[in-house]
Amino acid sequence: MITRCLMAAAVAVSLSVSSGAGPAAAETCGGVYRVKSGDSLSLIADGLYKDASKWTAIHQSNIADIGQNPNRIRVGQELRLACIDGLPVGLEGGTTAAQAAAISTQNAARPTAPVVPATQRALRLLTGDDYAPFTDRSLPNGGLYTDVVDAAMRNNPTGAGYKIYWVNDWAAHLDTLIYDGVVDMGFPWIRPDCDQLPDNWRCNHLVFSEPMFEILVLLFVDKSRPFTFATDNNVNGNRLCRPKGYSKHVFDQNGRNWLKDGKMELVSPLTVANCFEMLVAGEVDAVAMNEFTGRAAVADLDLRDRVDVDATPLTIDGLHVVISKEHPQSGELLALVNDSLKTIKGSGEYQQIIDTHMSRIWEGF
Predict the structure, then answer these.
(1) Beta strand ranges found along 229-311 (DSSP E)
(2) Which of 10, 41, 237, 357 is spaced 20 to 30 Å from 116 by Cα?
(3) pTM
(4) Does residue 278 come out as left (phi exceeding 0), alpha (psi in the -120 to 50 range) or beta?
């Protein structure tokens, strides 16, 4: 029955051309910026994007080089800046409007998977809708993460065929469809701090690929009631909001033990919107949310003038492809995914995909 339900829900990844405002054809947009003495991410964002709040966009695009602390940039460091609303212009390594259109057309026209020989079973990958901007069939190329996975699998070193299935009951993914072997792999999932949380179900039952994308988890605060997260002690006695169903590991990893030791109060309403409504009503002190989901909620609720982002990220979460430890080929599949990711990063296709989606996502904020 599970297999029949899965197959009935299966839909090939839809591919469409992303659109948005772009610079004049003679100019380049985005590119590489070299850090100068006295720079900070907010100063760079203010100068090049004309919006200091876009420091997180720069941080997000350069997590691997900057790390969790946005203040740890160094003179001469090269930062990749995505094209957002036609800015910045004139940087080395930028993309012209014509190039951007060609990339979008190329991506939209590509097949979703290699042809699978009749004698070979296609690898089965599982995801679901309603996880914007990462996975949703209404988004260009199925969302940022789906696009990356699709590109990686098309370039897998074994030439194995694959299919992406969509099942919107996320609760059934891990311990039923993936762990029981109905599918081979699933995405995108966060890996808990397994060193500190060895009894966590995911740590005991799944293997995780290298992160195909990393996201900032931020504290969204009310501008009229500033809440500054400079050290772990700043959370003592405060009320932090994170909706039901969202992982709580961000509060107890890296030696924090905020929940375990009762240092903070966790408020968990049903929805992300509920968290932000409670924030502006003074019922919680901050909302802990990944940058994209949080900013989208702020925009949807028209709270840009009320809500701000604290200058220190709470943590960085990697988004992974997961495989059951019980899968008879778990080791081979893990190597296949990691090698495929390495291939598209080496070819530049990975960065093209990220830049295209980041431009579209930030234009929506």
Answers:
(1) 239-241, 265-267, 286-290, 307-309
(2) 357
(3) 0.78
(4) alpha
Per residue in 89-105, pLDDT tens? 999 988 876 666 555 55
Residue count (the chain): 365
Provide the 8-state DSSP code for 44: H
Q: What is the C-alpha separation between 304 and 27, in angstroms, rounded?
A: 30
Nearest to 296, CA basis, from 68, 143, 79: 143
CA angle centred on 108, ends 103 and 113, rounded to 5°? 115
Residue carrying the six token digits 């792999």: 185
Residue pointed to by tokens 């610079």: 23
- Token output for 58: 């720069």
- Separation of CA 1 from chain center: 32
Backbone angles phi, psi at 142, to 5 degrees: 80, 10
Q: How far apart are CA 182 and CA 326, in angstroms?
A: 12
**Are the CB atoms for 29 and 95 separated by under 8 Å?**
yes
Number of Cβ within 10 Å of residue 186's Cβ equals 25
Smallest CA-to-CA distance from 72 within 81, 86, 62 is with 62
pLDDT in tens, 229-248: 888 888 899 999 999 878 88
